[in-house]
Design a protein that fits this description.
single chain, 6-stranded mixed β-sheet, binds zinc ion, 281 residues, 32% helix, elongated, Arc Repressor Mutant, subunit A, Metallo-B-lactamas
Length: 281
């Protein structure tokens, strides 16, 4: 399916993310080595990443940056966008559903344009379709290269670990639908926001869906066995959890419970720290 020389046109630039994640964030620069011309930067990373991106651009001969595209507004993808915009004059694009997340960044994020589902970006002879893929974040967008299926995947998938879902801006139901949406679209290689390239995108998307559904059943089984709180569920599901991952694990378990509640399978009693959960069917 791959008909263009994608590898030479999409450069992965690992940028520091201030310790938010174990792994660096993969920023991507889309450029044309033969034609030169303007480039597009996807997910410049945290504020600490700006220097790294500028150095990578300098190596390419300082081409003009036409657009800064954000897959979502989490700090480890978006916080450096303002400084890069300042340095290059390029506008920032974000889906409006992620504005509530953008507002939680320490520094304001100057969003110039709203991304739309289905919007097209042509750069370096490639055509990218923006595909709205909520779940990890409400306004999460991936960029699918139309001819090759190569996809700049943001945090929809992770090259190595799993993806955290953080309600209320994240939703397990939406996340599962987004994985399926991308699978139906016939993507090929996935270039994730963290970790190595995923060569077999469809297999990974299928595995992610199966993993989430298996996790949902595991949670239902623990509830049936009398485990009733999120901390106790997390302790059973992730016995060797590193302290830095506790928040993500609790949020993701809550996201599963939220879906089970919506499905009418679980009832929540009490709120916040006191909340308990019960399987009803
Ligand atoms: Zn994220």
């Amino acid at each position: 399916m791959e008909t263009v020389d994608i590898a030479s046109k999409i450069i992965s630039v690992p940028v520091p993310n201030d310790g938010i994640m174990e792994e660096e964030t993969n920023a991507y620069i889309v450029h044309s080595p033969e034609q030169g011309g303007p480039v597009v930067v996807v997910d410049p990373g945290s504020a600490a990443g700006t220097e790294v991106i500028l150095a990578a651009l300098a190596k390419l001969g300082d081409p003009p940056v036409r657009d800064i595209l954000l897959t979502h507004a989490h700090v480890d993808h978006a916080a450096g966008a303002a400084a890069l915009r300042e340095a290059t004059g390029a506008p920032i694009w974000l889906h409006p559903d992620d504005l509530p997340v953008a507002e939680r960044l320490k520094e304001p994020l100057p969003v110039d344009h709203y991304l739309k589902d289905g919007q097209t970006f042509e750069v370096a002879g490639l055509v990218f379709d923006a595909v709205l893929t909520p779940g990890h974040a409400a306004g999460h967008v991936v960029f699918v290269e139309r001819n090759s299926g190569v996809t700049l995947a943001g945090d929809l998938v992770h090259g190595r670990g799993t993806v955290g879902i953080f309600p209320p801006y994240g939703s397990m139901r939406a996340y599962l639908a987004s994985l399926q949406r991308l699978l139906d679209r016939g993507v090929t290689r996935l270039l994730p926001g963290h970790g190595p390239v995923i060569d077999n995108g469809p297999a990974t998307l299928r595995r992610y869906i199966e993993h989430r559904l298996a996790r949902e059943e595991q949670i239902a089984e623990y509830l049936a066995a009398g485990v009733t709180t999120i901390p106790d569920l997390v302790a059973r599901i992730y016995p060797d959890l590193a302290p830095r991952n506790v928040y993500a694990a609790r949020s993701t378990v809550y996201a599963h419970l939220e879906k089970l509640i919506e499905d009418g399978r679980v009832i929540q009693e009490g709120a916040d720290e006191q909340a308990t959960y019960r399987l009803v069917r």
